[in-house]
Amino acid sequence: MKVIQDTALHMTLPANIADEVLKYIERAECVSESSYRKELVVYWGHEESTTLTTVLDRYKPDVSMPDTVSPMLRDYKWPGIHKPFEHQKETASFLSLRNRAFCFNEAGTGKTSAAIWAADYLMNIGEVRRVLVVCPLSIMHTAWLADIFKTAMHRTAAVAHGSRDKREKIIGSDYEFVIINFDGVSTVQESIAAAKFDLIIVDEANAYKTATTKRWKTLAKLILPATKLWMMTGTPASQSPLDAYGLARLVAPYRVPKFVTAWRDKVMLQYSRFRWEPRKTAKDDVYKALQPAIRFTKQECLDLPEVMYQTRLVPLSAQVSRYYKQLKSQLQIEAAGEQISAVNAATAMNKLLQISGGAVYTDERDIVEFDISPRLEALKEVLDETIRKVVVFIPFVHTIDIVSEYLTKAGYSNEVIRGDVSATRRADIIQRFQSQEDPRVLVVQPQSASHGVTLTAADTVVFWSPVLSVETYIQCVARIDRVGQQHKMTVVHLQGSEVEKKVYSMLQGKIDSHMKLVDLYKQELEE
Fold first, then answer.
1. pLDDT in tens, 43-82
2. Is 146 within the bounds of a domain?
3. pTM of the model
4. In terms of CB atoms within 10 Å, which end of the chain has fewer, N or C?
5. b or e along 393-430 (b: 16 or more beta carbons within 10 Å of the residue's beta carbon)?
6. Distance of alpha carbon 62 from alpha carbon 166, whole angstroms
7. Do 460 and 501 belong to one domain?
8. Of 248, 245, 192, nearest to 219 (Cα)?
């Protein structure tokens, strides 16, 4: 498909499909034809381009079908503090032409901003008035709200989180973008329905892979025939072909059977009463079901930085929050009128970080465990958004055990490297991580593998909690960012408490001095 003088689209289509185009688009002409194909020219307006896309998408994923070019690429000014990458422009163009679509771009490729630009363009031309963004709790502020402010700062946006009254007030207001977490949707379902959002964007859409859940049924009720729906995930149906069913029923229900059992029989083969395995054709069936879709891997995005950084906000559980405040009050009393040394500051901050991360040692060296389910859920979200291996750095030994046990129960193969793991076993773990399918996740104490270790089988590093040394932080990232790495990389910070926020800021500013640590500690106590 070619653009002619910024006014028309030129294409050659099979005769039957060309006839459909001519039937539905008034400003389209046939300029030549043969027995089986017709050459068309279509006016390059948004309405014409959208109708053309709707016709062609019915035949996707037929690779012979040309991709429609959105007039957004001609008319849109791309606001924001950052210039869009080419793959972001293409993604935004793709979404702008479709009422229902998938975006399968890998994590770290900037699909959030691409969706915001597409939504902003549709607002500019009067196609969309309000947008509801449904996403994990951990990225409501750090990804979506922050990116709206950076990308479309002229738009109004708010996070609908907190009490039911607060959520309803925000939803019922005039905010153009409203951001809500998955399970918050059912709490205020009636308010969302009354607000009549024109566009719903679901980020990390695998949360809706199962059509029998309350979460799925709630969203399905909110999607009216005129509602636009864009579903985004970097790992569609990565665990089982069955996972495609719930997603397809929301975006393109005509592509899958009405009942999930029929879909199961189509993509799975039963070997015994409890054992089902994917059929040889399952991958093709999933690909056809999850259309229309666009996907860019990080490796395909040549203009991306080699390492992308992201922060996921993790709310402290009520238990953690209570103990955190108690310890902070105790530290304030101890510090009153005293000169704070760097050693004392590091020790105290370490305790605050331990509580934030899930377990703390008492003065008697006993271990007190805390409820860290929100942080575990955020880690699971990161793992589910990449198909490759992941290294998780956890500074505190006992928390390592908690996380490893959780991963095992959740079905993620993992190994642990920490100070008490022998050199021989450590070498064996690393060799298997680098060369075999399992383990998929490596849970590492930073001091035990921050130097001289190659972990390039992973493309993602997760910091469960921040370390207190910039050198250690840089070396941890360097485990995957070194010779042998074949993919773009992502570094994820899990952040819950204010002290974690301050330390991550220090680490990324690459400032490492005793005075700086003391200053951070004083600042934390004063707030």
1. 999 999 999 999 999 888 776 788 899 999 999 999 999 8
2. yes
3. 0.81
4. C
5. bbbbbbbbbbbbebbeeeebebbbbbeebeeeebeebb
6. 47
7. yes
8. 192
